[in-house]
Amino acid sequence: MMRPTGFIRLSLVLVLVFALPGCKTVGGWFGKDGKEEKTETLPVETLYAEALENMRDGDYSDASRYYTRLVARFPFGPYSEQSQLELAYVQYKLGKPEDATSSIDRFIRTYPRHPHIDYAHYLKAVINFDRNISFFTRIARTDVSSRDLNGPQQSLNDFNEVIRRYPNSIYAADSRQRMVYLRNQLARHERNVGLYYLRVGAYVAAANRGKYLIETYPRSEYQGDAVATMVVAYTALGQKQLADDATAVLKLNDPSHAYFSGDFPPKKGVFRRLNPFKGELK
User: Fold this and answer.
1) Domains of the chain: which residue ranges?
2) What is the mean pLDDT of the chain?
C-alpha cells in the first residue's frame, strides 16, 4: 500500500505533466498542438533563411524567435555570427533598446574582426540615437539646467567611434550627419540654460555657460547666441571691456544677430516657451 506522502508526490507530478503541454521535453520544443516546433528540427541553413525572411517582411517577433533558437542550437559558425548581429537589429525594431544594446555589445566583444563590425558599431550608435530623441522632444518641458546629458552625449561618442575606426565605411557619412544634429541639439540645450541664467539674474553663470558652449560645440548653430549671452552678462556685471570684446566678435561673425536689433535676450514669453518651469518666473 502506497503511503500518503508518496501518493501526494505522484499526484503533483501528474498535475505538472498535464498542465504544461507547451514546455520543452526531452524530444524538443512542443507547441499547443503537441507537435514539435520546426525551430527545433530545421537545419541551420533553413532556420537562418526563415529568420531572414521574417525580418525582411517586418515580422520581427518571429524573426527574433528564429534567430534566438538558431544561436542556441548552433552557437558556432558563420550563420550564428550573422544571426547574433541581425538579432540585435530585430530587438531594436521591436522597441527593446536595452536588449539590442546588450546583444550588439556582446557581438562586438566576441567578433571584433567580423567583416561587418563597422555596421555593429553603427547600429549601436543608432540605437542610442533613437533612444534619446525623446530627450530633445521633452527638453522644453523641464528644467533644462538639471537635465542629464549622458544619453545624447553617449550617442555622439558612438557615432564618433564609427568615424574614427572606419572612416571609409559606408556608414561614415550618415554618422557625420547625425553627429552634426546631436552637436546642435546639445548646443541648444546649453544656450537655453544660459538664457535661463540671464532671466534669473545669474550673470556669472550665464557668461560661463556661453563660453562653455563655444568651447565644447564650436561652429554649432547656436554659437552666435552664446556670444550674445556673454555680451549681455558682461554688460550687466559692469565688465565693459569684456562686453566690448564679445560684441566685436559677434559683429564680425554674425552681424545680423538678433542682439543688434534689440531682440536678444528673448522676451519673457520666449523664455517661458524655452523653460516652462513648475514655479513662476517673475
Assistant:
1) 29-112
2) 82
